[in-house]
């Protein structure tokens, strides 16, 4: 069994704000971390390996610092890791990102199952997984909250549909995106950290891909374009109240009365 | 891509300072842009010497005049139309009237003819119906095939899909098949005269909104969350007699056999226990990072009960395991549109506010006067929730007793 897990490095905080006067972005530290949902994806991949044997490969895309998330995957027990990194890939939207991952996978080899987190905490779209499955030409199930069965033919999963859960079977090869709480992720182990300290993180650039036309990647390969960015609109008619707790509570009570919130 | 005109650059370093992603550096006496660049173009504006230039995409431009109309994905689960469908129809009609485009629906399911007729009451120009046993449950692969079939024959300029469990799984697949753009979770939609869809959504994981367009490709895909847009009103009440005249507005479509073969087998559907969803709540008391301990949520619960509402939380509280995911308001949780929401100790990141700012009345309680939530709130209470909430609960209880006497 060849298992692939796709992971991403995201900003450690989401405190990026626009300065309303200058229009410039204010950032509060640029520390980064592994997308929290990807911990569940890695854990799911490792559990599948426990059942079927084989190997787990981690794949990420980003600047060279993103090597850190592959290292983290190694500490959890992932066998091999690849980082796709090239200046030409910058500014990619969902279409260009999923295409780049697809090309990366074509370079690495064939996989029976691709596991992704259900979304990232920076983009928050949850679209790259299904888009990647489309490029790979394999079926996908999103919002997987449980793996029921795994064997050499395929997988039975529980899919969260908000109002209901659907139990579905898919044959290999396929892609799943997993929800938080699918399974408790293991902690990175210190012993593994030491053991994998010198383990190679493979770097892939455009030169390694079958399609070397830079127009298909990054901003050039993106179908969507950010025209402008601006701070969220402030509410115009507003009342701001300050004072002692008791005063404020009385005023709040009066507001609730006025808004007919008291039954 | 961004490039730097090294002749104009005087290495002032302003771009490095303002870049929110740390994507710029001075290396060997030259400013260089690395892979962390998100193309936010802030540096273009801040560079005093205008040394940074954007080379725009050179994608092959679709002939946008060949694409016309707005196609709405009418979502059904077990034969019931998801209410987000009506919200998308409402928005589509508004946008289409600005461009004089038709509004159509694609409706995939099993035994859905009657429901399809019902959709016509909203004044649609056409409903494409894919009615087959194989479509009874959502299966991404063959639903994508049906969607592809419909788009190929109707060539819509814009495709709107609800950002539901089904929509968020299906839309990226279909958009990718057409190698076109998709913008997730749009909070505002508008159109330009040339039919470009203006899509606004929170972006870059920060407190920022972005305006996004898909100018070179068609169709333009967008997903919109439930409860963000206004619902469409029925335009016609269909007596059975007119219905026959409207039959031509229903188009029953079928796919070749090989396109109906799914690799996904639905073994079982387990209905969830019907819990009161925060999406439906009229009154919400929401807690954020200002809550110090899990047990303190009881205080909010009491206030919610007194007001006949429900409690909700922000993402950090779900991540801490203090509340279930179903209680989370935000881009990675639910969108709400209640009559009244009281936020307690919530600073108001845009991922949160964009999912609750259409509430009729927003009251925010926060100790920090500069918290962004006070820009969203109608009433901002600068104070300690630990003081105010218990006092308020007491006052409401007392008020009730007074009323009773």
Count of the domains of chain A: 1
**Averaged pLDDT of chain B, please?**
89
Could you state the order of secondary-structure elements of chain A as H and E? EEEEEHEHEHEHEEEEHEEEH
User: Which outline of chain A best applies?
Assistant: globular
Distance between the termini of chain B: 72 Å
Question: Taking Cα atoms only, what radius of gyration of chain B do you get, to the nearest Å?
Answer: 25 Å
How many helices of chain A in DSSP terms?
6
Strand arrangement across the biggest beta sheet of chain A: 11-10-9-12-8-1-6-7-13
Low-confidence stretches of chain A: none
Count of DSSP strands of chain A: 15
Categorize the overall geometry of chain B.
Answer: globular
User: Got a strand count of chain B?
Assistant: 22
Spans of at least 5 consecutive residues with low confidence of chain B: none
Please give the order of strands in the largest beta sheet of chain B: 11-15-10-5-8-9-16
The CATH class of the largest domain in chain B: Alpha Beta
CATH superfamily caption of the largest domain in chain B: HUPs
Rg on CA atoms of chain A, Å: 22 Å
Characterization of this structure:
The complex is a heterodimer of chains A (263) and B (405). With 263 residues, chain A is an alpha/beta fold. Chain A has a single domain (2-216), classed as 3-Layer(aba) Sandwich (Rossmann fold), CATH 3.40.50.620. Chain A is 27% helix and 29% strand. In chain B, helix 5 packs across helix 6 (165-177) and helix 8 runs parallel beside helix 12 (385-404). Strand 11 (164-171) of chain A pairs antiparallel with strand 17 (264-271) of chain B, so a sheet runs across the interface.
């Amino acid at each position: 069994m060849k298992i692939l897990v796709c992971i991403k490095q995201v900003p450690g905080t989401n405190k990026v704000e626009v300065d309303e006067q200058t229009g410039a972005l204010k950032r509060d530290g640029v520390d980064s971390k592994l997308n929290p949902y990807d911990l569940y994806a890695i854990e799911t991949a490792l559990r599948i390996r426990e059942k079927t044997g084989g190997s787990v490969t981690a794949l990420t895309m980003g600047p060279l610092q993103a090597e850190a998330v592959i290292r983290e995957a190694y500490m959890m027990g992932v066998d091999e890791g690849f980082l796709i990194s090239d200046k030409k890939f910058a500014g990619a939207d969902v279409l260009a990102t999923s295409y780049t991952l697809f090309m990366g996978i074509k370079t690495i080899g064939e996989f029976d199952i691709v596991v992704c987190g259900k979304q990232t905490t920076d983009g928050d779209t949850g679209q790259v997984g299904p888009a990647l499955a489309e490029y790979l030409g394999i079926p996908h199930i999103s919002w997987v909250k449980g793996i029921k069965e795994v064997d050499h033919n395929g997988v039975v999963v529980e899919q969260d549909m908000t109002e209901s859960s659907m139990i579905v079977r898919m044959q290999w090869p396929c892609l799943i995106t997993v929800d938080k709480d699918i399974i408790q992720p293991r902690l990175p182990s210190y012993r593994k950290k030491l053991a994998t300290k010198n383990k190679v993180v493979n770097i892939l650039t455009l030169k390694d891909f079958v399609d070397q036309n830079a127009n298909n990647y990054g901003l050039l390969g993106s179908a969507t374009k950010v025209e402008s960015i601006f701070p969220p609109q402030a509410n115009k008619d507003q009342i701001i109240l300050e004072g002692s707790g008791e005063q404020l509570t009385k005023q709040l009570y009066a507001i609730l009365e006025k808004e007919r919130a008291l039954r | 891509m961004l490039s730097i005109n090294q002749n104009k650059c005087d290495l002032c370093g302003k771009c490095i300072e303002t870049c929110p992603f740390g994507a710029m550096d001075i290396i060997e006496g030259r400013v260089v842009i690395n892979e962390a660049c998100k193309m936010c173009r802030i540096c273009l504006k801040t560079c005093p010497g205008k040394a940074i230039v954007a080379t725009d995409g050179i994608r092959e431009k679709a002939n946008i005049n060949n694409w016309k109309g707005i196609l709405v994905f009418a979502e059904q689960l077990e034969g019931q139309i998801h209410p987000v469908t009506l919200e998308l129809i409402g928005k589509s009609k508004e946008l289409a009237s600005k461009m004089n485009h038709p509004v159509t629906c694609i409706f995939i399911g099993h035994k859905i003819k009657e429901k399809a007729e019902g959709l016509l009451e909203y004044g649609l120009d056409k409903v494409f119906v894919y009615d087959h046993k194989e479509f009874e449950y959502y299966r991404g692969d063959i639903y994508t095939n049906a969607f592809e079939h419909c788009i190929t024959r109707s060539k819509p300029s814009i495709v709107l899909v609800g950002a539901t469990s089904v929509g968020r799984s299906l839309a990226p697949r279909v958009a990718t098949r057409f190698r076109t753009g998709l913008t997730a979770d749009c909070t505002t939609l508008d159109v330009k005269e040339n039919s470009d869809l203006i899509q606004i959504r929170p972006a870059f994981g920060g407190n920022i909104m972005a305006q996004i367009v898909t100018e070179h490709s068609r169709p333009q895909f967008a997903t919109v969350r439930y409860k963000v847009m206004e619902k469409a009103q029925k335009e016609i009440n269909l007596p059975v007699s007119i219905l026959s005249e409207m039959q031509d507005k229903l188009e029953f479509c079928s796919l070749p056999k090989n396109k109906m073969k799914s690799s996904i087998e639905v073994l079982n559907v387990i209905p969830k226990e019907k819990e009161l969803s925060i999406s439906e709540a009229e009154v919400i008391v929401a807690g954020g990072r200002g809550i110090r301990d899990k047990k303190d949520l009881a205080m909010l619960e009491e206030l919610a009960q007194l007001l006949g509402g429900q409690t909700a939380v922000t993402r950090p509280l779900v991540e801490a395991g203090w509340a279930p995911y179903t209680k989370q308001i935000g881009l990675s949780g639910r969108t709400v549109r209640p009559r009244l929401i009281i936020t307690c100790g919530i600073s108001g990141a845009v991922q949160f506010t964009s999912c609750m700012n259409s509430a009729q009345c927003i009251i925010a309680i926060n100790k920090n006067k500069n918290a962004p939530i006070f820009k969203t709130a109608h009433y901002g209470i600068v104070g300690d929730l630990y003081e105010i909430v218990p006092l308020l609960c007491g006052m409401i209880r007392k008020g009730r007793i007074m009323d009773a006497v």
